[in-house]
Amino acid sequence: MNYTTLLCDTPDPGLLIVRLNRPDRRNAINSTMMGDLHALWSALADQADLRCVVLTGNGSAFCAGADLKERNGLTVETWREQHAILERAMEAMVACPVPIIAAVNGAAMGGGLELVLASDFAYAASTATFGMPETSVGIMPGAMGTQNLPRACGNRRAREICFTAEVFSATDALEWGIVNRVWEPENLFESTLRVARRICSNAPLAIRQAKRALAADNADLATGYKLELEAYNRLIPTQDREEGVRAFNERRAPRFEGR
User: Fold this and answer.
1) Which residues participate in catalysis according to the annotation?
2) The domain containing residue 29 runs over which residues?
3) Domain presence at residue 257
4) Are both 138 and 209 inside the same structural domain?
5) What is the pLDDT of residue 216?
6) Is there a single domain that holds both residue 237 and residue 152?
7) What percentage of the chain exceeds 90 in pLDDT?
8) What pLDDT is recorded for position 135?
9) What's the CA gap between 111 and 113, in Å, rounded?
10) Residues 171-184: b if buried by 16+ CB within 10 A, e if exposed
């Protein structure tokens, strides 16, 4: 998994660390990174051995958003063609069956915040900052921000964030439901890895089916429950289900193989 703007590492079997890697530009998203992200998330969909992904930034920032220096002077047609790559990347990200945890080590602005919101959940350093500054430069969120932000913090808060374009703190992000926990910067990565390893120790097929069912949170209860039962029934004939019950009764740790 070699990319121009991403660093990928597998410290443990089944655990993938992805670092946005344009530290000289505060990991701003340029056209190359859009393509790399699309290729990454698309490739992960077929990796049965993968159990969890941690997404973070290399350097002092998580992601400063779109690289507006690259976009300066683009024609309308070129802008739309470029953005279409990002659209495909975001669609592939939310379709990824593997849990994605964002470890927000610094500023997460615009598209950076949208990557955080598209993750399954997020942790942040106490020094991290957040914002949706798009309306201050004549555009608006375009990487699922207007959809995922109100799901995280409520519609009225999302309107305030988008309309004011003001920066807010990690403490605010925690209070508003955008991140799950805040740690001191020196503890963020190891604390996130500890959670990721816990996820990796659970049954991977069960995690994937639970993620699939949880994605129906906007469906009505009856429709959502049908999806839950469909996902549940897929797990009954698996070897992992048999192993999990057997290990519980034998009072030992289960050995899940994703089958």
Assistant:
1) 114, 134
2) 6-200
3) no
4) no
5) 87
6) no
7) 91
8) 96
9) 5
10) ebbbebebbeebbe
